[in-house]
Amino acid sequence: MTAEKSVVAGFAILLSALGFVPQIAAQDRSYGRSVVATQYGIVATSQVSASQAGARVLEQGGSAIDAAIAANAVLNVTEPTSNGMGGDLFAIYWDAKTGKLYGLNASGWAPKALTIDRLRAKGATMMPQFGIDSVTVPGVVDGWTKLHERWGRLPWRDLFQPAIFYAEHGFAVGEIIHAWWAGDEKGLLTNAESQRVFLPGGKVPGTGELFRNPDVARAFRLIAERGESAFYKGEIAKAILKTSDELGGTMTAADLAAYSAEWVEPIHTTYRDWEVYELPPNGDGIAALEMLNIMEKFPADLAGPHSEGELHHRIEAMKLAYADVKAYDGDPRFGTIPVGQLLSKEYAAKRAALIDPEHANCTVAPGALGKSDTTYFSVVDREGNILSIIQSNYENFGSQITVKGMGFALQDRGGLFSLDPRSPNALAGHKRSFHTIIPAFMQHGDQHIGFGIMGGLNQPLAHAQFVSNVVDYHMNIQAAMEAPRFTDRQQLGCRIVIESRVTEATIDALTKMGHVLQVHPDYTSQMGRG
Question: Distance of CA 420 to CAs 327, 424, 428, Å?
């Protein structure tokens, strides 16, 4: 396949690749949006304004990296609920010329002085989910920097001008963003700066209402002109530290200045005849790969992807993989994470043997081993280079603490640490917590797909469902992303959230197997956005 065609075939979220032959007639298909094809590159995000910003960068000769940074900066403005420069970032980059994959882990670490003993002395029995003690060092700005230093073409400062424009002149708040904003109103009221910035006039901006954030425009100007040093050592760093100090936080100038994102080697497995890639721990992409390994032990159900047999195997494989990830995942710089064992086909066979084809397992334990809210977007440039990238605050508005005078919230990713010192995910200074945000990539011959699906711990199982839809049922990417899905908000039990687009007969059959199903409306946000 030529480089031009691989631009399309390599593209991910929401859009389809030329390499696939749809099995459903175009006049009678089961998905809504049409397949999009172009030889000039595509930017797919959850906001039209961000996609346009990235597309303009491609038109100006920018690389996939340039377009992604511009789009992500706009998303920081237009989706402050989900992401921002106070959060973390992970990326997988496929170089079309060399065929090599690169991984970047730009997740931040805990402040050096934020320890289990300190929190227990304050009376904590579990990690705080909000507030200053849930805050870790943000990694996104250093992540942007490292990507741009390696593959950027356009001047750094130019990439932030669209975000500055929307922050100063305002953007119309979308329907979904308004709903999330309103859902976190009480949290925003707990912090005076959050209330001032994100509740203008004392209320959540309405759907279609213009929202302006001149403070975040100022922060972006500083980054555009002075680079990442403005964030980790300069004026923004001072504002972060002042905000933390006033709330009794532990972050220091050294915690910020010493931080650096890490280049990592993607981990992978084969599913049928496709190669599927995720990033290694501290993220939970390994759960998606283990789930696929287990699913591979069963043939695709001839009754279709939404039959009770296929869904039962997917659900049970998910439980087994998630049990392992909860027991063994963590920061590999602080302990050995058994990636090789968890991803071995032999181990998957043992786990698959535990699946009862007729009954749901409601008490799943991790396997025995020998002596580990968000925005996703994807960019393909005209050379066929693919960037699969994800960025997040974790919860809506993160810690619910906004940096004074800078207009962005600090993430609460520290809430995912454990206070159990025996856990591989135990809190420690300069340690990275277990992470839920995961970009992904898959390839078969000359077909290359960068993909991702948002939604916290929903992500690995959503990835596995997407891969199966493409590989087992020959869906194009549009159909695979829009297909009905299930998720597990309890984790490891039998309570499963499933979309009402699954037939009533299938739901009845799964219920008889012991699955406790909560049927949600079509295209529920519980499934995570793609």
Answer: 12, 9, 11
* pTM of this structure: 0.91
Alpha-carbon distances of 376 from 68, 98, 167, 476, rounded to whole Å: 11, 25, 21, 19
pLDDT of 391 higher than 60: yes
CA dihedral sign of residues 201, 206, 212, 217:
positive
Residues 6 or more apart whose CB falls under 8 angstroms from that of 276 comprise 268, 269, 270, 288, 289, 292, 440, 441, 442, 467
Give the residue numbers spanning the domain of 253.
3-263+375-416
Q: Is residue 524 part of a domain?
A: no
Q: Contact at 8 Å (CB) between 528 and 506?
A: no
Residue 426 lies in a domain: no
Which residue in the list 374, 375, 402, 506 is annotated as catalytic? Answer: 374
Phi, psi of 188 (to 5 degrees): -65, -30
Minimal CA–CA distance to 332: which of 425, 208, 455?
425
Domain count, the chain: 1
Question: Is residue 330, in this structure, part of any structural domain at all?
Answer: no
pLDDT at 366 over 70: yes
Active site residue 374: yes
CB 292 within 8 A of CB 460: no
Terminus-to-terminus CA distance in the chain, angstroms? 26
- Cα(12)–Cα(43) distance, rounded to whole angstroms? 10
CA 344, CA 440: separation in Å to the nearest integer? 19
